[in-house]
Amino acid sequence: MRLSDIAKQFDLELVGEDKEIHSLAALQDAKPDQLSFLENKKYLNALKKTQAGAVIVKKELLSLLPKGVSALISEEPYLTLAYISKLFAKEPMSKSGKEPQIGNNCTIAQNVSIGFNSVIGDNVTLMPGVVVGENVTIGDNTLVYPNVTIYRDCQIGKNCIIHAGTVIGSDGYGFAHTKDGRHVKIYQNGNVIIEDDVEIGANCAIDRAVFGSTIIKRGTKIDNLIQIGHNCIVGENVLMAGQSGLSGSTIVGKNVTIGGQAATAGHLTIGDYAVIAARGGVTKSIPGGKVYSGFPLMEHKQWLKLQALLARLLKRGNC
Amino acid sequence: MRLSDIAKQFDLELVGEDKEIHSLAALQDAKPDQLSFLENKKYLNALKKTQAGAVIVKKELLSLLPKGVSALISEEPYLTLAYISKLFAKEPMSKSGKEPQIGNNCTIAQNVSIGFNSVIGDNVTLMPGVVVGENVTIGDNTLVYPNVTIYRDCQIGKNCIIHAGTVIGSDGYGFAHTKDGRHVKIYQNGNVIIEDDVEIGANCAIDRAVFGSTIIKRGTKIDNLIQIGHNCIVGENVLMAGQSGLSGSTIVGKNVTIGGQAATAGHLTIGDYAVIAARGGVTKSIPGGKVYSGFPLMEHKQWLKLQALLARLLKRGNC
Amino acid sequence: MRLSDIAKQFDLELVGEDKEIHSLAALQDAKPDQLSFLENKKYLNALKKTQAGAVIVKKELLSLLPKGVSALISEEPYLTLAYISKLFAKEPMSKSGKEPQIGNNCTIAQNVSIGFNSVIGDNVTLMPGVVVGENVTIGDNTLVYPNVTIYRDCQIGKNCIIHAGTVIGSDGYGFAHTKDGRHVKIYQNGNVIIEDDVEIGANCAIDRAVFGSTIIKRGTKIDNLIQIGHNCIVGENVLMAGQSGLSGSTIVGKNVTIGGQAATAGHLTIGDYAVIAARGGVTKSIPGGKVYSGFPLMEHKQWLKLQALLARLLKRGNC
Asked: Which residues form the UDP-3-O-[3-hydroxymyristoyl] glucosamine N-acyltransferase non-repeat region domain (chains A, B, C) (predicted)?
């Protein structure tokens, strides 16, 4: 799509060379055929170094754009991005495409749907009611229990087990807001990548990335009713217990343990081998190798001490 | 159904005129062809003004009934209501009915079921495994992802997006209790109404009303794994983040934001533009326009102050 | 399977008589044709009294085995159990078997799958997209809403209602851990038993037992989005509100009430008629007949007192 066409459609000023744009990306990842945006000034450095073909920016920031990067001028770049994102959204279901390719020795039950251009490895089992969207890959020996939904473009590794009712690749929760209080969808054009040897419990929801990929790395085991927001990266051999959740863009190190009903605030990092006890609420990045509890989160031994203090307070009945 | 037949079936005394009853309703909503009940004395005023055809009440309250309103006498009106509710429950699946009506330019995938008497608008996409119960309406341009279930009698607006695995119209959690500790189902004869431009994430559960409607108003965006109890009314442009929940009969004002894993106790009102932070637990009605946190809920700045005090207490190691 | 074959396959020392082993079981339940294990020394008494055919144990504990009980020697018995458990896992879907038996007057909708050897009672309704695995029994008059998945070997009683999207019999979250931080699946070879008159809400996940059964007893009513871990035993007439969860091996007494988003830590007992308020976090066994709140859990009246103290502290702004 030509930048000039986008500019025209949304009545935006185009500064710089007209270009062919193929997709959207974050500033630090964008390539010359991609369009990016800057809303939050904490990403000014990424703006100065971006390799995007064009960026949606406020007029006052034009001078910071690297040479050769075009601009679409907007006073509300995030909202403008939201409107533009729809242009790059893929159809949920195409009308035509290449028949899916099924490996050797697979068990494909009745009432299974597999979308165009998908590739299923060897020895894969897809139980009744499984829906595999188009352009999905599923690795060898993976077992998918009934009524699982895998959205288009997602990649599932080898030797994975996905329990019934789980949803992989649903849209991340991303909206820009108008001044009059409406919420405009940012189409979620990324995907989910599940690496090898991952097990995911029943009725989980793992959202696709807005751009790029939500990633669950090799050997991670996820219990039931767990939410993983868009653009999370979950390290190798992580354990997540039932009803826990990761808000968008949480980065979880390897061998982290996350207790039941624990959650994260998103846009933060959890270091390798950290343990978050049940109900822990992670509100900022934390180093690995320690045990944490509580909300707001603290080291577990501090939390125990606090509970002991409160128990004493309660016993005395007075402060 | 005749009041006298109901009275006979459950061995109840009928006081006043025998009438034809078509359905059940709350005191304040009931019409002359409806049966209502009074269990909790805080609704005595509603009893005095009811336009119900008949009311299930304790004998001692008979004198408060408006003229012309009949009564079924019960020492346990709520329990009696539960038993009677079964008489008015509709079949989950009828054996016959009018073929569903599908609009122009729809994409109805394989393995989709649509019940009798349902009406699907134009440009609607129903992906594989979607189950639309009978007497459902779905508005133009709405997109329903795989394995979604919409129970009978529900109404979905235009331009909605419903993600995979979500359930709309499941029974509210309503039971009356016998003296020996059994729980008797109150059949949930209402429905769910989703207005236009609503997006609902994956694996949510939105319960139908016991009588009347659970309503999600225009422009509201709901994340994954969210529960909305029976008879909730969620205002326009509300945001609900992942794993949050509304207990039954919660009234949420417009443009309210509800954080991840936050919840409400039910039978309360949240004012317009209120913000409930993640994990907030709303236990009573709150005015709009403020930010709240914690459980029990308080204003967010109070919560921050409390956390600072506790941190100081912990540091000192003594109260 | 011969003990000697298992020993050979995993390079383990077999002490005592070679035997035919049919399945795995916990020490206190194991029979002479079953293999058990001891990892945690708090079960030494169970070891001394076990009737298992053989036990996986550390060498140093050999002398504690009852006469005639064989041993497989391992320095990591739980990890060894995990590897062995795969040998006893049943196929998720068999290639052949006895056609399912359907009772009189059932309504089996389109797109329903029923596995081999399953037995469906009279007057059962299975709505579209329901998947019943093999060797399942469903009692008379039970109603299963769309897109429910019931895994193999589970038993559902009479007069039950199971709402859409719920999963019964998914694998419990059980892993043994290698020294280098990988997680080895313990195949969950047990099942789920749902007794009569149970209602389960939408999008719940009830895990099968590792050995034996997860049991939901008669008359219990479960709301939406609830997790019940492996080997839980939920008593009669229990109420569990939305988004609550039970970790593995929780024993819940009869007529217990569990509030919304409440949870348990597992391997504990809740006494009859206990009430856990919303968000309560049960971390150890508690006697019945009382009302509890908070996390860590305390008696509700204590929790109210603590909140009052904290409110006073906050008001004073100083400790």
From this structure: 19-87
pLDDT at B110: 96
Mean pLDDT over A113-123 rounds to 98
Which residues from chain A sit within 8 angstroms of residue B242, using beta carbons? 173, 205, 227, 229, 245, 247
pLDDT tens readout for residues B219-272? 999 999 999 999 999 999 999 999 999 999 999 999 999 999 999 998 999 999
pLDDT of C319 over the 70 cut:
no
Q: What is the pLDDT of residue C273?
A: 98
**Nearest alpha-carbon partner for B188 in B308, B74, B88, B285:** B88
**For C291, what's the count of Cα atoms within 13 Å in the CB-facing half-sphere?**
8
Secondary structure in 3-state letters for chain A: CEHHHHHHHHCCEEECCCCECCEECCCCCCCCCEEEECCCHHHHHHHHHCCCCEEEECHHHHHHCCCCCEEEECCCHHHHHHHHHHHHCCCCCCCCCCCCEECCCCEECCCCEECCCCEECCCCEECCCCEECCCCEECCCCEECCCCEECCCCEECCCCEECCCCEEEECCCCEEECCCCCEEECCCCCEEEECCCCEECCCCEEECCCCCEEEECCCCEECCCCEECCCCEECCCCEECCCCEECCCCEECCCCEECCCCEECCCCEECCCCEECCCCEECCCECCCCEEECCCCEEHHHHHHHHHHHHHHHHHCCC
Q: Tell me the C-alpha distance between C115 and A13, whole Å.
A: 62
- For residue B317, the model assigns a pLDDT of 84
Q: Using alpha carbons only, what angle is made at residue C261 by residues C190 and C303, rounded to the nearest 5 degrees? A: 120
Tokens 């939500």 belong to residue: A214
d(CA A51, CA A65): 10
Rounded to the nearest angstrom, the minimum Cα separation between B119 and chain A is 22
Query: Per the CB < 8 Å rule, is A237 touching C306?
Result: no
| Tens-digit pLDDT profile for residues C152-170 | 999 999 999 999 999 999 9
Under 8 Å between Cβ of B231 and B193:
no
Alpha carbon distance A68, A30 (integer Å): 14
The residue of chain B with its CA nearest to that of C131 is B129
Chain C interface disruption, residue of A131, A203, A295, most C CBs within 10 A? A203
| Residues in chain C within 8 Å Cβ distance of A128 | 113, 131
Q: Which residue of A has its CA nearest to C110?
A: A111
In the block, tokens 């064009």 appear at A54
Count other Cβ atoms within 10 Å, centred on residue C290: 14
Domains annotated for chain B, with CATH where assigned, are 3-88 (3.40.1390.10), 101-300 (2.160.10.10)
Average confidence (pLDDT) over C230-255: 98
Q: How many CB atoms lie within 10 A of CB B209?
A: 25
Please check the confidence at residue B318 and state whether its pLDDT lies above 80: no
> According to the model, what pLDDT value does residue C41 have?
87
Give me the percent of chain A exceeding a pLDDT of 70. 100
C312 contacts in chain A (CB < 8 Å): 319
| Mean pLDDT, rounded, for A16-32 | 96
pLDDT of residue C318: 73
Tokens of residue B212, six digits: 């009347």
Residue found by looking up tokens 């170094």 in the block? A49
Separation CA A59–CA C59 (nearest Å): 75
The 10s digit of each residue's pLDDT in A179-193 is: 999 999 999 999 999
Apex A259 CA angle, A254 and A265, nearest 5? 75
ipTM: 0.97
Residues of B engaging A, defined by a Cβ cutoff of 8 Å: 107, 109-111, 125, 127-129, 143, 145-147, 161, 163-165, 199, 201-203, 219, 221, 223-225, 237, 239, 241-243, 254-255, 260-261, 278-279, 307, 310, 313-314, 317-319
Output the pLDDT for position A319. Answer: 63
